[in-house]
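Here is an idea for our session: we take a single protein and study its fold together. To get us started, please write out a protein record for me. Start from the sequence, derive the backbone structure tokens from it, and show both lines together. Go ahead whenever you are ready, and we will take it from there:
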Amino acid sequence: GYQILQPITFLKEGLVIVLYHHERYDGKGYPKGLKGKQIPFPARLFTIIDAYDAMTTKRCYRDKLSPEEAIKEITRQKDKQFDPSLVDLLIPHFMTLKQDGYLDNL
């Protein structure tokens, strides 16, 4: 995706997300094996949101998880896949969205 979008100049700011959203906080991701704060902030943030969306959306190969199950899995992956400080910041927002009914149709 990065190589496809790179020539589009108005997308330049978002390319960091495209390039690094498969990096893991523990350094076991790709493409560069970046660890912790080496991963640009936008990519660390997007990775959590993308994972939540992926887990709570039905796929052809599996059923969707409930928001509570997804939150439990994301919390379990703190310090491994996800930035723990960002998980701690985002989880209350996911819970608020769920309580307000915004996540009911996912």
Remarks:
- The chain has one domain: 2-99.
- The radius of gyration is 15 Å.
